[in-house]
């Protein structure tokens, strides 16, 4: 996880953003601490391929804000801006949905491949699309935070790459193609011709005859800018047998660029842990005797000891007698342990002094390598023609780099870099003065150049004078490290190579098992021998519980676990089943949240304040009040209140609003006009009935016979009313 | 009302189900029981994962549960829901073993696995069920 978070920053800080940056950032987002993604073999391959690209790159990009275009810094775009800018470059949403969901008959691998942007056919806007992908990836990474300097750098990257994505493609600054070329060059270890390997589109990727891609093909293709064709199945039947040598891929034109095929072969080999890591890929600054034993390994080599002996012989005149003797003794065959410790100490001091972090990669700006031996003149000329950089920018940046390197180096590098920085500063100063003389008067720009050169020269001289190590010790340590360093790097590389190879061999064995299993290993393979004869054993105490031991073999067990873990929906299913908020969990919390959500979204919700909601609210309140009335009639409440207060508020249940109003009036007057006793009902008799207050009444229709009003026969309140009235009268 | 869509089990799980049916037809409703649902759960001991004591839904999950234990051994604890005084039963579940829960164990006993009862770093269990709603929908078709 830390690696995934760190890689995008390293990509912008110490190298060129690899074409795999988009999928890499997606992986960083998907693989979190709370919901870790089960990384499959292909995910690891993706990370390794991106790391290899990054480590192999000879270039480091100058972002906007670091170079001479400081003044032209654009405002930081938002993600929405980037999406809008990309609207004319990407497929429509419906096409995207089809692409993501997959077409009928497409396998999962093909759908996954389609998710890689680089797998789509190259077109004229490929560079812009790549730039927008890089900008989005940088913005996404910046949103995840980190050190302030890193986030600021990522914002610069967003500005730089979004500006590139918005630009029209230019022949002179075809940075996208050159970026891919740099990636290919880094992987193949050779220089490519500028136009030889890019731009060959894969036309037959459309239609039904589209070749089947594996995910590995997709990763390689993405890394190499779409210039890869899936391997043809070999005659031996091995799914990947044809890609081992990397020479089987072809472009549609019938010929593949040699650099691309070499790069593809290199990348494929690296993804299998087969010689992909070269000893030159291990930077010296990554070696440390605190955490590795490479120094011990190097000092155990006779050739290294011989080199060290020569160094000490040269430096013997200046070294302290006792120290020199100790080192000499240490370098003799069969030296005692104390002497070996002295040699080890010398190696440690040399490593500590000389392998300090210093980015020695060449500058890369707008698709041009600026400080490379190769193509520097061409790149500088084209950039100067386009007005991107000033003519002497290379000298200026090189001098600044040297000064920066001097400032952070422990050894000081007084003999080399500070002197070189002073020389470069003097060159710039001389050029500025010459320009001023040619123009006849000292212009402001010439004055600025001269002042900058003077400052640079002074800084270089100060660094040279204040070295951390005395010159003689610096020379000894520098020469000692020159003898030890390459062997240390080689030892580290071999160790890493071995580790990676072992890891990748294991992963490939698992992958082979999965490949063999996917058509139905369990369907075809016979069960373990004893399974057929074994019957389920019932449990001694638990009725209904049976157990079958060794139901699957060990190979099947490993395959099933790998299959489950590599299933793409594994994490989702797990999080859904475990999250108490998930509706699938059917937990009380989820139901509560669901109901709240539905209420909030409904127009009936009181939160919406719609007329319907107010109506429903009033209806609800009315229903509640009616419910309260039904459950506990108001006269009971009044009776209890009256018993409590010992006063006559209501003498009888309010049958109608008028009686209730009358009662209210009673309560308000000192002398009630209708005393409860005066309203005592009598049992109905024939021919007589209280007026409208009793359920039994006489009507003319039945000739005076008392009948029961059907509407009032089941008046359930009557007994209560009577009892209440009796209580009231007490 | 739309009937739920029934996806067939993936081939590896289907193979396990077929082997299960051929092995113990007398337990699986005379061989007519076929699971239509498989649920895989991964337990990592270092993360404190456990299976809380529960009894699967008595209506939805059907009368038979089959559980395949992978990765490491574990001990499953059964507690009687109806007779609280009955002592819990601890049942060893070796890795690569298959467990059938039918009858009383299925309906009357809650089962769970404490985190400390995971005998290895990681356990993956695959539970096969015959979901009633889905099977009814399939029968309607």
Provide an overview of this structure:
The complex is a heterodimer of chains A (730) and B (141). Chain A has 29 helices and seven strands. Chain A has 730 residues and is an all-alpha fold. Among the domains of chain A are: 2-196, no CATH class; 284-357 and 472-501, no CATH class; 362-408 and 415-466; 588-617, no CATH class; 632-671 and 718-730, no CATH class. Chain A has a three-stranded mixed sheet, sandwiched between helices. Chain A starts with a helix and ends with a helix. Mean pLDDT of chain A is 58; it is low at 66-73, 85-124, 188-213, 230-257, 369-380, 402-409, 571-578 and 629-730. Chain B has 141 residues and is of the alpha+beta class. Chain B has one domain: Jelly Rolls, CATH 2.60.120. Chain B contains three helices and eight strands; from the N terminus they run H-E-E-E-E-E-E-H-E-E-H. Chain B has helices at 11-23, 103-108, 132-140; strands at residues 37-44, 51-54, 65-70, 74-80, 89-93, 97-101, 109-113, 122-129. Chain B has a four-stranded antiparallel sheet with strand order 1-8-3-6. Chain B is globular, with a radius of gyration of 16 Å. The two termini of chain B are 13 Å apart. Mean pLDDT of chain B is 84; it is low at 1-5. The interface between A and B is large, with 40 and 39 residues.
């Amino acid at each position: 996880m830390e690696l995934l978070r760190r890689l995008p920053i390293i990509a912008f800080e110490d190298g060129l953003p690899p074409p795999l940056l988009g999928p890499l950032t997606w992986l960083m987002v998907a693989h979190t601490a709370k919901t870790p993604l089960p990384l499959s073999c292909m995910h690891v391959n993706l990370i390794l391929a991106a790391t290899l690209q990054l480590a192999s790159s000879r270039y480091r990009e100058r972002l906007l804000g670091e170079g001479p275009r400081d003044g032209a810094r654009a405002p930081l775009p938002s993600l929405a801006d980037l999406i809008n800018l990309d609207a004319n470059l990407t497929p429509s949403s419906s096409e995207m949905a089809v692409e993501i969901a997959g077409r009928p008959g497409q396998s999962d691998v093909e759908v996954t491949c389609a998710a890689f942007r680089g797998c789509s056919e190259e077109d004229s806007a490929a560079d812009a699309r790549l730039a927008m992908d890089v900008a989005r990836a940088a913005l996404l990474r910046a949103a995840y935070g980190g050190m302030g300097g890193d986030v600021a750098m990522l914002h610069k990257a967003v500005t730089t790459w979004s500006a590139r994505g918005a630009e029209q493609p230019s022949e002179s600054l075809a940075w996208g193609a050159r970026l891919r070329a740099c990636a290919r060059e880094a992987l193949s270890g050779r220089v490519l011709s500028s136009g030889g390997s890019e731009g060959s589109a894969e036309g037959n990727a459309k239609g039904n005859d589209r070749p089947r891609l594996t995910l590995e093909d997709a990763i390689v293709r993405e890394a190499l800018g779409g210039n890869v064709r899936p391997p043809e199945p070999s005659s031996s039947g091995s799914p990947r047998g044809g890609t081992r040598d990397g020479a089987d891929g072809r472009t549609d034109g019938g010929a593949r660029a040699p650099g691309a095929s070499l790069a593809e072969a290199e990348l494929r080999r690296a993804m299998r842990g087969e010689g992909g890591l070269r000893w030159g890929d291990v930077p010296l600054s990554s070696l440390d005797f605190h955490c590795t034993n490479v120094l011990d390994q190097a000092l155990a080599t006779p050739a290294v000891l011989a080199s060290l002996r020569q160094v000490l012989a040269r430096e013997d005149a200046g070294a302290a007698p006792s120290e020199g003797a100790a080192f000499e003794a240490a370098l003799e065959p069969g030296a005692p342990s104390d002497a070996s410790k002295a040699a080890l100490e010398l190696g440690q001091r040399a490593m500590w002094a000389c392998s300090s972090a210093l980015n020695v990669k060449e500058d890369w700006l707008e698709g041009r390598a600026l400080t490379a031996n190769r193509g520097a003149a061409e790149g500088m000329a084209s950039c100067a023609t386009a007005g991107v950089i000033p003519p002497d920018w290379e000298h200026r940046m090189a001098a600044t780099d040297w000064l920066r390197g001097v400032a952070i180096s422990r050894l000081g590098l007084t003999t080399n870099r500070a002197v070189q920085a002073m020389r470069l500063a003097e060159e710039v100063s001389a050029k500025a003065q010459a320009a001023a003389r040619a123009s006849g008067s000292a212009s402001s720009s010439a004055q600025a150049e001269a002042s900058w050169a003077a400052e640079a020269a002074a800084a270089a001289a100060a660094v040279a004078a204040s070295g951390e190590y005395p010159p003689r010790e610096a020379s000894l340590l520098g020469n000692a490290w020159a003898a030890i360093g390459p062997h240390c790097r080689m030892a580290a590389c071999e160790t890493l190579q071995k580790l990676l190879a072992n890891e990748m061999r294991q992963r490939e064995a698992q992958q082979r098992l999965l490949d063999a299993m996917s058509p139905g290993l369990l369907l075809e393979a016979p069960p373990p021998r004893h399974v057929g004869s074994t019957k389920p054993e019932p449990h001694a105490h638990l009725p209904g519980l049976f157990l079958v031991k060794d139901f699957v073999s060990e190979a099947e067990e490993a395959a099933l676990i790998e299959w489950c873990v590599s299933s793409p929906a594994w994490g989702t299913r797990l999080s859904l089943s475990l999250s108490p908020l998930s509706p699938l969990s059917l937990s009380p919390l989820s139901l509560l949240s669901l109901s709240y959500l539905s209420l909030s979204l409904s127009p009936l919700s009181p939160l919406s304040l719609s007329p319907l909601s107010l109506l429903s609210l009033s209806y609800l309140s009315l229903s509640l009040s009616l419910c309260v009335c039904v459950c506990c009639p108001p006269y009971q409440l009044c009776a209890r209140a009256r018993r409590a207060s010992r006063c006559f508020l209501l003498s009888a249940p309010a049958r109608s609003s008028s009686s209730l109003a009358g009662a209210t009036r009673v309560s308000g007057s000192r002398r009630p006009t209708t005393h409860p006793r005066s309203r005592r009902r009598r049992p109905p008799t024939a021919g007589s009935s209280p007026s409208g207050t009793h359920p039994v009444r006489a009507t003319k229709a039945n000739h005076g016979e008392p009948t029961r009003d059907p509407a009032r026969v089941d008046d359930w309140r009557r007994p209560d009313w009577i009892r209440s009235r009796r209580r009231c009268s007490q | 009302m739309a009937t739920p869509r029934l996806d067939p089990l993936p081939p590896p799980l289907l193979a396990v189900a077929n082997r299960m049916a051929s092995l113990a037809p007398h337990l699986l409703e005379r061989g007519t029981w076929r699971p239509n649902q498989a649920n895989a759960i991964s337990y990592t001991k270092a993360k404190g994962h456990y299976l809380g004591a529960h009894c699967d839904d008595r209506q939805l999950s059907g009368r038979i549960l089959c559980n395949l234990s992978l990765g490491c051994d574990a001990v499953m604890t059964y507690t009687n829901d109806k007779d609280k005084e009955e002592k819990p039963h601890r049942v060893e579940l070796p890795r690569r073993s298959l467990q059938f829960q039918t009858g009383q164990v299925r309906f009357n006993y809650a089962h769970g696995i404490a985190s400390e009862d995971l005998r290895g770093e990681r356990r993956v269990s695959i539970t096969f069920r015959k979901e009633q709603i889905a099977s009814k929908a399939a029968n309607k078709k």
